[in-house]
UniProtKB/TrEMBL annotation:
Keywords: Apoptosis, Coiled coil, Disulfide bond, GTP-binding, Hydrolase, Lipid-binding, Membrane, Mitochondrion, Mitochondrion inner membrane, Nucleotide-binding, Transit peptide, Transmembrane, Transmembrane helix
GO biological process: apoptotic process; endocytosis; intracellular distribution of mitochondria; mitochondrial fission; mitochondrial fusion; peroxisome fission
GO molecular function list: GTP binding; GTPase activity; lipid binding; microtubule binding
Membrane-topology annotation of the record: Single-pass membrane protein
Entry's Gene Ontology cellular component terms: microtubule; mitochondrial inner membrane; mitochondrial intermembrane space
Species of the source: Nezara viridula
Name of the protein in question: Dynamin-like GTPase OPA1, mitochondrial
Mitochondrion found in the keyword field: yes
Record InterPro entries: Dynamin, Dynamin_GTPase, Dynamin_N, G_DYNAMIN_dom, OPA1_C, P-loop_NTPase
Length: 965
């Protein structure tokens, strides 16, 4: 609370709120003029004084004004007025700051209309309202709300998009309509002219003064010539319109391509259909399926011109050709479709060939020829493997054609013996498809009686419901035939026994390789324009030229496609259901993995086993390598080093012989033998992991054959790095040079090693003795065994030899001549049997070996406790055997350590790389995968996957086909 002394002697300070001085002064001033209000009015409002405190200052003459002053000061309207004034000023300052912070929007004046323009528009609208105020609006229209207006907008946007697509089609349709109208007018005009002239000709003949017969013939010839001219004019007009239409389509396709270059490219209908055919071909390459999709099969005799007909339809010379030589050696499937550019592309390649360039055409023909040669098997002249190709271009008729090798009558020496039968069998298989359109091509320049293909086609399609007959080389036929009317009979279907949907005559060139398609088309047009044969015949012009043929074949093709594609989809739907049912009943808990997916799964398991090699402990590697090393070198150490030295029975000679032979062996063979042992250890360990994996119950037994094949192939390819040989040799020589056994533990280890080696060798020798001398007394009585005559003789020799060894315990390894003579005489005296010296020597070798090894083993037992005597350097101690085997043991340990390091650091990774290479090779070899991954589980999954793919593509194609309708 604050006190303020002023002129009037007091001020009111409200608790929690400061009352402005200006408000107080104004309140006082107003109270001075309200003399009719007294203090009693103030007292009636005690709430106004709550929270306030009045401070009295005794001033003279002002007591009466206190109550009035307080009443005016506490009026709420003055408080509100003061707050409004302060708040308004603050708000104005804030607004001005916010306005200044806004960006400059003056640039909108360029795009927004001015105030003057808006006012003018408003005035015009007011004027318009005044004019139409008497017009009544239908209340139904007024009921259209925002929802209906929004629906209308969406509908309009959708229709605009559809209209844009329809506009392109309407351009083509309008052009086609113009073409048809022109055609009808030409035909009507020609017919009217012909009828008028024919009528006048009939009237002239009815008159009494009719001209002679030759005049009538001239008039008939003139009418025919005029009709032919009309047809030719019509033909030229059609070709002109067709050229314009082709250019128009090209521009439309280019325009569409430029607009959709950033969008996903949509496959054309014919491309989708071609993919379905490829899937069917891969599913059953023998074409043995009962229900197949349509295609146009081009058949004919060799050199009949079927390839030329196909090139005229494709508008490019895309096939290799030879003079009188069979060039088509495999079926070639050509998918024709529209496109902005005239290009060709193989199914399994991304490369495009520009058919407007002769260089690309030559490369394309060469590629077709190479693919045909690659498809041929050994000793075969033709192949059943289909070469798929796509040809696109503006104005091309959409269809799928299959060009087959020409039917031959004679097999030359350069061909396989079964070529003729193979071609006929291939042709029959392709034509046997009930939905295939047969394009039967007949050479018009040869006698009809020499035709092979017509009889073949008549046997496959006797009713002619899917056959189109094409007569080629009509120009040559017109020149060579003595009876030109035979051509009319052929094209009328009256000569050959076969039937057909239509008959066409074409000219596909003059037999020159350098002629382009346009030159051939021009030649064909000129021929039919000037040909007297067709001018005099009653054939329709629609039966002539390859253009009319192409249109007729395309129309027939799509008609058959629409009739059969849904049946094919239903057939595969049923097949899929049957296969899925079989899988659920046979393999209920397994995923449907095809051969490629199974191979990838097996690849992962095999590579995991290679990784497990790094988990083998150092102790395990050392133990395995020591066993492999001793197994490799034990025979050489015992037979070539130890036994020759020990049999000298002289300590100094023993050490000299051992040192010389050890050094020679270490420098020449030991390193190589050690590497062989290391390689075998690596293979053994890896094989152990593979066997363990296959023995696991959770392992898929389907992979066992593949794993075993990969293991064998990888180990066959693996070879140890040779650069470690020299380092290993130096380590071994250093280890073998050390002759000092340092402690008792090493001495005991060497003794055990010596004893173990001698016992192993003794076991082998005793087994040899058992085979040489036959069963003993125990075996004879218990197992009822007996000895042979040879064994009896050896037992007699054995008895004499044992007496010799008993008398001379340290006998040498060889028998003296006197000893040999004594043994022979003793045996002859006792049994009267003459024994040869060689027989005695053969018997002596194992007996002496057994005797000597037992003696050395006994010596080793004596050396067990001789370590301290050895350290004292006693020369009479004969424990050189222990020192030798200690040196061998140290060398084996050093070698095993070096090999282990090489295995873990280098060879395991190299083996991993080799295994990956083997797996990659197998993944590219389909025959290998088929042979290694077999069984109903694999074939059923493969078939089920393929049927699903075909069904999906068929359904996708049917949807696109229905949309096009």
């Amino acid at each position: 609370m604050y006190n303020f002394k002023g002129r009037f002697g007091f001020i009111i300070v409200h608790r929690g709120r400061n009352v402005p001085i200006l408000s107080v002064l104004k309140a006082k001033h107003s109270l001075l003029h309200r003399s009719n209000k007294n203090y009693s009015n103030f007292s009636k409002h005690p709430k106004l004084l709550q929270g306030s405190k009045v401070i009295h200052v005794h001033r003279r003459g002002f007591g009466m004004f206190v109550a009035r002053f307080l009443k005016g000061a506490l009026k709420l309207r003055y408080l509100v007025l003061g707050g409004a004034v302060g708040g308004g000023m603050t708000l104005q300052n804030k607004y001005q700051a916010w306005k200044d912070s806004l960006p400059d929007m003056s640039w909108l004046d360029t795009y927004l209309p001015s105030t003057k323009t808006v006012d003018s528009f408003r005035e015009s609208m007011i004027s318009l309202t005044e004019r139409v105020k008497d017009i009544e609006i239908d209340p139904k229209l007024m009921s259209v709300g925002e929802t209906k207006w929004r629906d209308l907008q969406e509908w309009l946007n959708k229709r605009i998009d559809e209209a844009y697509e329809a506009a392109k089609q309407s351009e083509i349709e309008s052009y086609q309509k113009l073409f048809l109208e022109s055609f009808e007018n030409i035909i009507k005009g020609a017919s009217n002219q012909t009828q008028v002239k024919a009528l006048s000709f009939g009237q002239e003949r009815a008159q009494p003064h009719a001209p002679k017969e030759n005049t009538a013939d001239k008039r008939i010839d003139a009418l025919q010539q005029e009709l032919m001219d009309v047809q030719l004019r019509y033909q030229r007009e059609i070709e002109r319109l067709e050229r314009d239409n082709k250019e128009l389509k090209k521009q439309i396709l280019l325009n569409k391509h430029s607009r959709s270059k950033n969008k996903q490219i949509k496959k054309s209908l014919i491309d989708m259909y071609s993919e379905v055919l490829d899937e069917l071909s891969d599913y059953d390459s023998s074409y043995s399926i009962q229900d197949q999709l349509p295609r146009v099969v081009v058949v004919g005799d060799q050199s009949s011109g079927k390839t030329s007909v196909l090139e005229m339809i494709a508008q490019a010379r895309i096939f290799p050709r030879g003079a009188g030589e069979m060039m088509t050696r495999a079926p070639v499937k050509v998918t024709l479709s529209e496109g902005p550019y005239h290009v060709a592309q193989f199914k399994d390649s991304d490369r495009e060939f520009d058919l407007s360039k002769e260089e690309d055409l030559s490369k394309l023909r060469l590629e077709v020829e190479l693919r045909m040669k690659r498809s041929l098997g050994r000793g075969k002249s033709v192949s059943n493997e289909v070469i798929s190709m796509t040809v696109k271009g503006p104005g091309l008729q959409r269809m799928v054609l299959v060009d087959l090798p020409g039917i031959i009558s004679t097999v030359t020496k350069e061909m396989a013996e079964d070529t003729r039968e193979a071609i006929r069998r291939m042709t029959q298989i392709h034509m046997s498809n009930p939905n295939a359109i047969i394009l039967c091509v007949q050479d018009g320049s040869v006698d009809a009686e020499r035709s092979n293909v017509t009889d073949l086609v008549a046997g496959i399609d006797p009713s002619g419901k899917r056959t189109i007959f094409v007569l080629t080389k009509v120009d040559m036929a017109e020149e060579s035939l003595a009876d030109p009317q035979r051509i009319n009979k052929i094209l009328s279907g009256k000569l050959f026994p076969m039937k057909a949907l239509g008959y066409f005559g074409v000219v596909t060139g003059r037999g020159r390789k350098e002629d382009a398609i346009n030159d051939i088309k021009q030649y064909e047009e000129n021929f039919f324009r000037t040909s007297k044969l067709f001018r005099d015949s009653m054939l329709s012009s629609t039966q002539l030229t390859t253009r009319n043929l192409s249109m007729a074949v395309s129309e027939c093709f799509w008609k058959m496609v629409r009739e059969t594609v849904e049946q094919q989809a239903d057939a595969f739907k049923a097949t899929r259901f049957n296969l899925e049912t079989e899988w659920k009943n046979t393999f209920p808990r397994l995923r449907e993995l095809d051969r490629d997916e199974l191979f990838e799964k097996a690849r992962s398991e095999i590579l995991d086993e290679v990784i497990n090699l790094s988990q083998v402990s150092v102790k395990e590697w050392d133990s395995l390598l020591l066993d492999k090393l001793w197994h490799k070198v034990s025979h050489h150490v015992l037979e070539n080093i130890y036994l020759p030295a020990a049999q000298t029975c002289n300590s100094r000679s023993f050490n000299t012989t051992v040192d010389i032979r050890l050094k020679e062996w270490a420098e020449s063979q030991l390193a190589d033998k050690s590497i062989e042992a290391g390689s075998e250890a690596l293979k053994t360990e890896f094989s152990h992991f593979i066997d363990k994996s296959m023995a696991n119950k959770e392992s898929d037994k389907l992979f066992d054959t593949l794993k075993r094949a990969v293991l064998e192939e990888a180990l066959k390819r693996h070879s140890w790095e040779e650069k470690g040989n020299e380092v290993l040799r130096m380590l071994q020589l250093t280890a073998l040079e050390d002759r000092c056994v340092n402690d008792k533990h090493q001495w005991d280890s060497a003794v055990k090693f010596l004893e173990k080696s001698l016992k192993e060798r003794l076991e082998l020798v005793q087994k040899q003795l058992s085979e040489m001398f036959g069963p003993g007394t125990w075996e004879k009585w218990v197992y009822w065994k007996s000895t042979t005559s040879d064994q009896k003789q050896r037992n007699m020799v054995k008895s004499e030899l044992e007496k010799l060894l008993y008398s001379d315990f340290n006998h040498g390894p060889t028998l003296t001549p006197d000893e040999m003579t004594t043994i022979r005489k003793n045996i002859q005296r006792s049994s009267r049997i003459d024994i040869s010296n060689d027989f005695i020597r053969d018997t002596w070798a194992p007996i002496y070996r057994n005797h000597f090894l037992n003696a050395r083993l006994g010596k080793a037992y004596e050396c067990r406790k001789a370590f301290y005597l050895y350290h004292q350097g006693l020369e009479e101690l004969e424990c050189n055997d222990v020192v030798l085997f200690w040196r061998m043991e140290q060398m084996l340990k050093v070698t095993a350590t070096a090999l282990r390091q090489q295995v873990m650091n280098r060879e395991a990774r190299r083996l991993d790389k080799i295994i990956k290479e083997v797996l990659e090779d197998y993944s590219q070899d389909q025959e290998k995968k088929i042979s290694l991954l077999t069984g109903r589980r694999v074939t059923l999954a493969e078939e089920l996957k393929r049927v699903r793919q075909i069904q999906d593509k068929l359904e996708e194609f049917i949807q696109a086909l229905n949309k096009e309708k």
